[in-house]
Design a protein that fits this description.
Helices cover about 10% and strands about 45% of the residues. It has 3 helices and 17 strands. It has a 10-stranded antiparallel β-sheet. Strands 4-3-6-7 form a 4-stranded antiparallel β-sheet, with no helix packed on it. The N and C termini lie far apart (about 55 Å).
């Protein structure tokens, strides 16, 4: 009985030693925000995730954001307060789990400029997936008034040899149909491409970029489709879709967001 009381006393004492840090955290799709109270005598704050050293901060820092994390993944974070001799003064152990961008987002055109009725609205659906070649990424679908949902990213699987090949505009394939649907939404000209090919697919933790080389009337134009996911401090999520061209001619024929004070990108708000 005496031994049990001594063990319990030591446990309570050890817990009290690590009670002053008062660390809190906030989970996001690809990051975790940390905040903590200052620990008297601390010279450094060391942060680890899954036992891997992340960074050392000086004593005037009381916040840090772990970025570029995988979505839907448990994070085992350790925050240690240490003196000049690397002696532990206090610590916090945090078991967080990142959220995800998964869901449906929508943009509504508030003007009469709808690119001949093709862009009255734009709906995006995204699903987090994993590929052994590129890692975690967002599989993204578009839909709009009168148009069934079609795949926007990636148009081809990452190991598909057709990715960098040239394709006829009227090619009878699922990828060809996806390309035509995407082009029809933002092409403001009366000209249709004769052929196209993907030159680049880029995946970042919170964005994807699809670069397409298109041949139109003997000219070769390059356009980028950039989709960026964002979350504000209140947890509201958006997906920004931006079409841009490297050449002035390409940029001229791309439909941009006509809503005033929103910029060129279509800003889609998460609805479910």
């Amino acid at each position: 009985m005496k031994k049990t009381l001594i063990t319990l006393f030591l446990l309570i004492m050890s817990l009290s030693l690590f009670a002053a840090m008062n660390a809190t955290y906030k989970e996001h799709p690809t990051s975790v925000e940390l905040k903590w109270s200052k620990v008297p005598g601390a010279v450094f704050y060391d942060i680890y995730n899954d036992n891997e050293f992340i960074t050392r901060l000086d004593s005037n820092k009381t916040s840090y954001t772990l970025e570029n994390l995988l979505s839907n993944k448990e994070q085992n974070i350790t925050l240690a307060a240490r003196d000049a001799n690397n002696k532990d003064l206090d610590a916090a152990w945090i078991k967080a789990k990142t959220t995800s961008w998964d869901g449906t987002y929508k943009w509504v055109n508030n003007t009469k400029d709808t690119n001949k009725g093709k862009m009255k609205s734009l709906t995006l659906r995204t699903v987090t997936e994993y590929d052994p070649k590129v890692g975690q990424y967002q599989r993204i679908f578009f839909s709009t008034d009168g148009v069934d949902e079609f795949l926007v990213f990636p148009i081809f699987d990452f190991d598909d040899p057709r990715t960098n090949e040239k394709h006829k505009f009227k090619e009878d394939s699922e990828s060809g149909e996806a390309y035509r649907q995407n082009v029809s939404l933002v092409n403001t000209s009366a000209f249709k491409p004769s052929e196209w090919r993907i030159t680049k697919m880029e995946i970042m933790p919170d964005s994807v970029t699809l670069v397409v080389e298109t041949k139109v009337m003997g000219m070769t134009l390059t356009t980028d489709t950039i989709i960026t996911f964002k979350e504000d401090q209140n947890g509201n999520k958006t997906a920004e879709v931006l079409y841009q061209g490297e050449e002035k001619l390409s940029d001229k024929f791309l439909f941009k967001n006509p809503n005033p004070n929103e910029g060129d990108a279509f800003v889609l708000k998460k609805i479910k």
